[in-house]
């Protein structure tokens, strides 16, 4: 993922947001994991996360609403709570691992409202007002102060405040992002938080900042975090090659990301760290210390089931769904190898051109047959003082062959709309 769209980016772009508390209903399902968490998950009543499948909740006349209909239509599908869907299967496997850990019971949340406030998603997590992750070029806003959550960390402080000491929280998250086989504007995350018993953290009392970072207790937490997540990866994949990198999140310190080797390449699967003491203070848990992580379920499922394209998770095609069953890890058999169609488009960009607006515009017109959009050429004409960008759009259906005529017609619509809506000069 490009640094400018990651939640951890630190450069500033967007104006400050004002905050007034809107009244949004919040429904949360709580299931306690028993020692046989896996079986309990299967016998549990169906999750109510699908109650959010109502596009009218996300589309409004608010001047700053930037949720397009094709995104609103994805909310509430509840892929993470479907026992026979790869996202649901991997979530169950992760819960199974955490319920097998000694010492702590993890409470499970899986049906929070995907609409959150800027306070939940950003302020409570020390994400500053000018952070690019808050910018409308990266985030889907419903009003100025409500949005589609960009990460499951948006629920950290409410669960901490409610008194939870250890919990997992899974859900669909939304980001305006680049388009390729491993990036999709909607995906799923699973958050985990563990607070340590007060007795084990006696030595940390009153410590903040550098003094806390250097304390024995902070190191103990970071080591427990890494060991827990390495154990999770081994539980999922057997022995996999993995590596830790330092990372930055405003809500954890120190922070790390974990990468695993997949088809010869390092793939980032999660971010994590020691919960920042100010986040604990905000959540009225200043007496406690602990760790948090957030992982991408699609990335893990793509590796585990060998699913080559992130769009497949959203398909309704039975040739996909018939291959998966609760609790079973199988290799996905490709049922289609339809040829791609490439189309290039070049244009002079105006000042303030936002790449994500262009990606979204194409998806809005052509939908999921847009497999990839990449910048293949860029130059500035010094006389004109103008910059030209050339993008290659790869069109490919997972379910059928595309005709040249239909792609030409779509490409023509993209050319017209990009000039109309984004003020570019198509070349
Ligand atoms: C976060 O979202 C942090 N909230 C994670 C976190 C939680 C850190 C708790 C510390 C404590 P990040 O933006 O890196 O971090 O995303 C986390 C994971 O989500 C990534 O590692 C990746 O697996 C997945 N992910 C991110 N963007 C996409 C995308 N567009 N498509 C699919 N998966 C994605
Ligand atoms: Mg990251």
From TrEMBL:
<dbReference type="GO" id="GO:0006432">
    <property type="term" value="P:phenylalanyl-tRNA aminoacylation"/>
</dbReference>
<keyword id="KW-0067">ATP-binding</keyword>
<dbReference type="InterPro" id="IPR005121">
    <property type="entry name" value="Fdx_antiC-bd"/>
</dbReference>
<keyword id="KW-0436">Ligase</keyword>
<dbReference type="InterPro" id="IPR002319">
    <property type="entry name" value="Phenylalanyl-tRNA_Synthase"/>
</dbReference>
<feature type="compositionally biased region" description="Polar residues">
    <location>
        <begin position="37"/>
        <end position="51"/>
    </location>
</feature>
<dbReference type="InterPro" id="IPR036690">
    <property type="entry name" value="Fdx_antiC-bd_sf"/>
</dbReference>
<comment type="similarity">
    <text>Belongs to the class-II aminoacyl-tRNA synthetase family.</text>
</comment>
<dbReference type="InterPro" id="IPR006195">
    <property type="entry name" value="aa-tRNA-synth_II"/>
</dbReference>
<keyword id="KW-0030">Aminoacyl-tRNA synthetase</keyword>
<dbReference type="GO" id="GO:0005759">
    <property type="term" value="C:mitochondrial matrix"/>
</dbReference>
<comment type="function">
    <text>Is responsible for the charging of tRNA(Phe) with phenylalanine in mitochondrial translation.</text>
</comment>
<feature type="region of interest" description="Disordered">
    <location>
        <begin position="37"/>
        <end position="65"/>
    </location>
</feature>
<feature type="domain" description="FDX-ACB">
    <location>
        <begin position="336"/>
        <end position="427"/>
    </location>
</feature>
<keyword id="KW-0496">Mitochondrion</keyword>
<dbReference type="InterPro" id="IPR045864">
    <property type="entry name" value="aa-tRNA-synth_II/BPL/LPL"/>
</dbReference>
<keyword id="KW-0547">Nucleotide-binding</keyword>
<dbReference type="Pfam" id="PF03147">
    <property type="entry name" value="FDX-ACB"/>
</dbReference>
<keyword id="KW-0809">Transit peptide</keyword>
<keyword id="KW-0648">Protein biosynthesis</keyword>
<protein>
    <recommendedName>
        <fullName>phenylalanine--tRNA ligase</fullName>
        <ecNumber>6.1.1.20</ecNumber>
    </recommendedName>
</protein>
<dbReference type="GO" id="GO:0005524">
    <property type="term" value="F:ATP binding"/>
</dbReference>
<feature type="domain" description="Aminoacyl-transfer RNA synthetases class-II family profile">
    <location>
        <begin position="171"/>
        <end position="339"/>
    </location>
</feature>
<dbReference type="GO" id="GO:0004826">
    <property type="term" value="F:phenylalanine-tRNA ligase activity"/>
</dbReference>
<dbReference type="Pfam" id="PF01409">
    <property type="entry name" value="tRNA-synt_2d"/>
</dbReference>
